[in-house]
UniProtKB/TrEMBL annotation:
<feature type="active site" description="Proton donor">
    <location>
        <position position="109"/>
    </location>
</feature>
<dbReference type="InterPro" id="IPR036477">
    <property type="entry name" value="Formyl_transf_N_sf"/>
</dbReference>
<protein>
    <recommendedName>
        <fullName>Phosphoribosylglycinamide formyltransferase</fullName>
        <ecNumber>2.1.2.2</ecNumber>
    </recommendedName>
</protein>
<dbReference type="GO" id="GO:0004644">
    <property type="term" value="F:phosphoribosylglycinamide formyltransferase activity"/>
</dbReference>
<keyword id="KW-0808">Transferase</keyword>
<feature type="domain" description="Formyl transferase N-terminal">
    <location>
        <begin position="3"/>
        <end position="182"/>
    </location>
</feature>
<feature type="binding site">
    <location>
        <position position="65"/>
    </location>
    <ligand>
        <name>(6R)-10-formyltetrahydrofolate</name>
    </ligand>
</feature>
<dbReference type="Pfam" id="PF00551">
    <property type="entry name" value="Formyl_trans_N"/>
</dbReference>
<comment type="function">
    <text>Catalyzes the transfer of a formyl group from 10-formyltetrahydrofolate to 5-phospho-ribosyl-glycinamide (GAR), producing 5-phospho-ribosyl-N-formylglycinamide (FGAR) and tetrahydrofolate.</text>
</comment>
<comment type="pathway">
    <text>Purine metabolism; IMP biosynthesis via de novo pathway; N(2)-formyl-N(1)-(5-phospho-D-ribosyl)glycinamide from N(1)-(5-phospho-D-ribosyl)glycinamide (10-formyl THF route): step 1/1.</text>
</comment>
<dbReference type="GO" id="GO:0006189">
    <property type="term" value="P:'de novo' IMP biosynthetic process"/>
</dbReference>
<keyword id="KW-0658">Purine biosynthesis</keyword>
<comment type="similarity">
    <text>Belongs to the GART family.</text>
</comment>
<feature type="binding site">
    <location>
        <position position="107"/>
    </location>
    <ligand>
        <name>(6R)-10-formyltetrahydrofolate</name>
    </ligand>
</feature>
<dbReference type="InterPro" id="IPR002376">
    <property type="entry name" value="Formyl_transf_N"/>
</dbReference>
<dbReference type="GO" id="GO:0005737">
    <property type="term" value="C:cytoplasm"/>
</dbReference>
<dbReference type="InterPro" id="IPR004607">
    <property type="entry name" value="GART"/>
</dbReference>
Amino acid sequence: MLNIGVLISGRGSNLQALIDASECGDIPAKISIVISNKSDAYGLERAKKHNIPAVFINPRDFSDKNSYERKIVETLKQYNVGLVCLAGYMKIVGEVILTEYKGKMINIHPSLLPKYPGLHAQKQALEDKAKVSGATVHFVDEGCDTGSIILQAEVPVLENDTEDSLSARILEQEHKIYPEAVRLFVEGKVKF
Ligand code: GAR
């Protein structure tokens, strides 16, 4: 069975969606390791509740980004990871991880890419007075949220939306399309 490694920075609700889908057999793969760059990421607790190894790797313990990323790759390899899922991992992935996992690394982003890449995608949609926004699962490449798109889901942007209300509406869709995109990858139905 394919081993999945999940990289997080915070709440981990997308991680939870992946864990649930794996446990109920919707994804024929195992979440084998969760890595966070933040010590207080709630996602670490979620993983532990499901007996999934979960580690905090502190970027500040390393002299540069490459050595930090080498530690991440080493950890993923210990668990024989064949797919890396970024789930609210708020760091730009650099060349060390990409060299190892390009084509085997996917990300979820809270907009209909290529619209609103980068930080605060929901705020960008509101400021742009968009009528629709949504979520995207895509392969990770060298750019910021530029990799090939696997799945998208659309949601309306309502007139009185706040960043919170729009984020919640998008998140609901994220929790559906992320497990679905992982399933497509694991079943060999999408390739980089
Ligand atoms: C999600 O909305 C995800 O799409 C977004 O962060 C949130 C993480 O929530 N990711 C990005 O903005 C990446 N550029 P979660 O920790 O509850 O899954």
